Amino acid sequence: MKLTMLYSFLKADIEEVEKELSQAIHSDTELLKDASLHLLQAGGKRIRPVFVLLAAKTGQYDIHRVKNAAVALELIHMASLVHDDVIDNADMRRGRTTIQAEWNNQIAMYTGDYMFARALNYMTVIQNPSAHKILSDAIVELCIGEIAQIQDKYRFNQSTRDYFRRIKRKTALLIAVSCQLGAVAGNASADIQKRLYRFGYYVGMAYQITDDILDFTSTEKELGKPAGGDLLQGNITLPVFYAMENPEISSRIKKVHEEMPGEDLRQIIDDILKTDAIKRSSAISQRYLRKALDQLDEIPQSKAKKSLRDIALFIGKRKY
What we know:
This protein has 16 helices and 2 strands. With 320 residues, the chain is mainly α. It has a single domain (3-316), classed as Farnesyl Diphosphate Synthase, CATH 1.10.600. GO terms for molecular function: heptaprenyl diphosphate synthase activity; metal ion binding.
């Protein structure tokens, strides 16, 4: 089953969000518009807007108000991807060339900044000071996470605590805030807002750990970028931490550098796959998913709640 089938009843509203996203990145500056469209047209799961819409369904749903939060969250996510690609010097994203590869780093950085600014424009429609604080705090943490990732590159002696803190800021927090702001925009109760925040956080942690597993177990075609790319760029993920418990594999991993030949990297990936690193990482991901599902227990039954649960389970079943 495709992910989109799990929330097919939102089809018209998601199309509305997609239309609004196109308008959001419009600019009289042709270069800025082209660069922004380049990423938007590459597609994506739009999982953050979906979480906003579903969370808003737990309260008083009004697509004309809620779509602004959905667009804002996706723009922030897109901006972070653009900046990520500059930091990682990545050539491919979602099977297409990145903005920095198609143009240059300067264009990419300002395009990302433009998307951040447009996100803030959209949030002004939601006249709730707490919503603005939630979003601004999330952007601050996201930036701290990006800096931490730069500092942690090729730092092979870091701890798993560093890793979990980093993926919280880079991924989980934005998904948590998507759920929270959806509930805020729908005027859901304070208890539901908190529960949906925690649900999003746990789902986000599981989602990122699963992505880190797939970086080793999927093909370049499935990933839309080279397999093992995270390790090659110096990003130490959970499977790597577990694999490095083997001294021999650890010594080989510590020799990884950006210019390493693909054949040598492939051998290291094979070594990692021969350990129990993937199995153990998967177990941690499943633990986060169970915590996420627990948060839904006290939320009233609805089509939206079922979709939230189904999406969480779908994330847990992605192929390793």
